[in-house]
Write a structure and sequence with these properties.
It contains 22 helices and 17 strands. The protein is elongated and about 135 Å long. By secondary structure, the chain is an alpha/beta fold. Helix content is 45%, strand content 12%. Strand 16 and strand 17 form a beta hairpin. It has 4 domains: 255 residues, P-loop containing nucleotide triphosphate hydrolases (Rossmann fold); 184 residues, P-loop containing nucleotide triphosphate hydrolases (Rossmann fold); 74 residues; 35 residues. The strands form 4 sheets. A 7-stranded parallel sheet has the order 5-6-4-7-8-3-9, with helices on both faces. A 6-stranded parallel sheet has the order 10-15-14-11-13-12, with helices on both faces. The structure holds zinc ion. The site of zinc ion (ZN) has 7 residues, from helix 17 and helix 18.
Amino acid sequence: MDAFSPSIPAANEKFFWETIYMAEKEIFIEGEDFPAQSFDEEEFFYCDEATLAAQKSFGIKFLFPWQRLVIANILDSSGAENKDFEIDGQINENDGVCRGKQIVLLPTGAGKSLCFLTPALLLDGPTLVMYPLLALMADQQRRMQEGSLSCVVFKGGQTQEEREENFRKIECGQARVILANPEVLQNEKIICRLKKCGIAHIAIDEAHCVSEWGDSFRPAYLTLGKIIKELEVKTVTAFTATASPPVLARVNEVLFDGNAHLVQSSADRANIHYEVRYAYAKKKAVLKACIELKKPMIVFCSSRRKTEDTARLLTAYFGSEKAKFYHAGMTKEEKLAVEKWFFDSEDGILAATCAYGMGMDKGNIYTVVHLDAPEHIENFIQEAGRAGRKGDDVNSVLIWSHKDQAKWRQAQKNSREKVMGDFANSRICRREFMMNYLTGEQVICSGCDICDAQKSGKKIDYRADDAEFAFKFIKRNRRLFTKDETVNILTQKFNLRDRDFFKENVWEARDMQEILTQLFDSKKIKKLGGFWENHLDIKAEKPRFLFRRFLTAKSIHRLYFLRRNFRHFQKKLEELRQLLS
Ligand SMILES: [Zn+2]
């Protein structure tokens, strides 16, 4: 199987190809780009702006996950601000990969028209769609005229009047879609007029033509990158069904200067085992996963600095040839060197931002760890899908901390951010949760931590075990130790506990401080004042007996101490009395 071709789980295959077959026959009626699938509308909880618009205008019932991801990226990036900048060394999540610049890998007929026609309904400016062949353009024009979208066509051999009429329609907002081929856009006058129209989005169909034809008989394709820049359009989507890495790399280079984001149509990949690990000390959890799970692996981090920190931690354990980092802030040579190292590596670990991926076709990645959850579950699935391209059984591990949990609690109900937390806190099968959210399809789970636990009759512990260990220690020793003492003792205890696993002392005082801080934040423990200055105690619901407040281990120590002193004092007094008498 071609490593880049979308993998469709066997159970959904019939359904999938039926969809495609239907999509190729007609368009814009239920069951064209979309399967006529029955579902309970109340059960189907996710309905965003894009889905609603597509439902209303095209009569479809739902959008596929990759369609939603592509549409969300288009709508997000054409929103006013470009989020691609750096604050205090913290690079934003996109890490130079502009999500508005996408290469979308879809099999022909999988419903790509909806990916640019749905945003066309919602964007402020018109959408420019480029086709390589006049026949395709004419076909699209006919379909759109049958639907509710009005479009104009620019092609060779048009009269001045025809073009003026086109511009009139665009300027008055009557035409939301402009169809053109690259050749007609070589005309400076047209480009100049189009620029004034404020184009919001450019979609390039059959983008592999850039690579296949641009270098030979259609040089106009090679100027598309320049045209995009001249039109000053931030949001560009290139669609292709050809998946070979050199073609993708060439398309990325010509159209996007190498900064595009790749979206593939793989929703459920049956060979991925999903797992969520609850950990307060994330770095230790990553190290543990890196030791346990099969390599080569990628650790996805949310910022450039975190990739470097993680790589440092891993090199300290595995050696410098086994772990490296990758992000968009590196020079081209550095990136190439790391890409090559990882591509050839049999047991390497790469700590990367989402900048890693384009054009890389490493088939033997066995594990994808997410140190930080991506903003959206669609991105999570795309990134987890970097593993197991050859169909081997692979693992996807999401590390989830109290901080993530707090962020999730604050996220708005039904927002895309909320879903990632719902996934992490899911009490039902991870895969079932994902598919429910994405398509409402029924899948048979091929492996996740929750299903494993159900099979083995164990219970999933949703609490982070490090935090639980620390919390129990404080609970056993209420008011006995100050914060600093607790940090020291716990560091030793954790190292003792984990020495068998890590073979060395990996816990440091600052890890423990981090855990305690999170325990404070989650209001599980508290620092006392007054007589118990700086001593730690758990935040109990209510003390069961009044004397429990005073009778802690330390107060008993103090009582012993007082009694001993008292006896000592009595003895001295006795001696004194004898002396006097
Ligand atoms: Zn499952």
